[in-house]
Amino acid sequence: MPRTRKAAPGVDVRLALLDAAGELLMTEGADGITTRRLAAMAGTTTQAIYTEFGGKEGIARAMYREGFARLEAHMRAVPETADPLYDLFLQGRVYREAALDSPHFYDVMFGSPIPQFEPDADDLAVSRIAHDLLAAAVARVIAIGALRPGAQADDIAQWLWAVAHGAVSLELHGAIELDDQTYDEYLALSLAGFLVS
Fold it and tell me: What CATH number should be reported for the domain holding residue 159?
């Protein structure tokens, strides 16, 4: 019987398993995610996978939700100041930070790298929280009269998300090279079209 490493004291086994699954997904694809390899990488037993996720099938769902939880945490960390427009700009900036911090979850959140996984209604409700936070930040800018009359918070939030997502996706897949300044310019340009001139 193979010996199993023990996770270090204080290590969150659930997160260690999810990060291991993400690493395998990025390097080897969905077929590389096996319970034995996950357990070895996380320093735990295969039984822990069944305890935490009900089996391999539950890992993809947990990765999806964890990715959005991390994005939400980044967005909630942006403080509300007396300058709602700058706060909105920062929301766009932390979107990229969240993606670069956890690229191994990004494809699960927005693509279909694990064919067996399809988000259900509860998963989509979790993903909607990030959109709602962005829409709330847009609504604060609308409230101070900085955006064109008739602007709808949900519509602008979707547009800004699409711009940020497009740039970050291209960056993560190596199609373009981005630095902080160039990304900030993309954000500023995408927002400029909605501002009161």
Answer: 1.10.357.10
As a whole number of angstroms, the distance between CA 129 and CA 98 comes to: 15
| Alpha helix segments (H runs only) across the chain | 13-28, 35-42, 46-53, 56-76, 84-101, 103-110, 121-143, 153-172, 180-192
pLDDT of res. 10:
54
Identity of the residue numbered 171: E
Domain of 43: which CATH number?
1.10.10
Report the C-alpha dihedral over residues 153, 156, 161, 163, rounded to 10 degrees: -170
Dihedral Cα 173, 177, 181, 185, nearest 10 deg: -70
State pTM to two decimals: 0.88
CB 122 within 8 A of CB 65: no
Angle between helices 121-143 and 84-101 (to 10 degrees): 150
Classify residue 26: in a domain, yes or no.
yes
Whether residues 45 and 68 share a domain: the answer is no
Are 7 and 16 contacting, i.e. CB atoms less than 8 angstroms apart?
yes
Q: How does pLDDT run across 139-173, given as a tens digit for each residue? A: 999 999 998 878 899 999 999 999 999 999 999 99
Same domain, residue pair 101 and 168: yes
Domain residues for 99?
Answer: 61-192
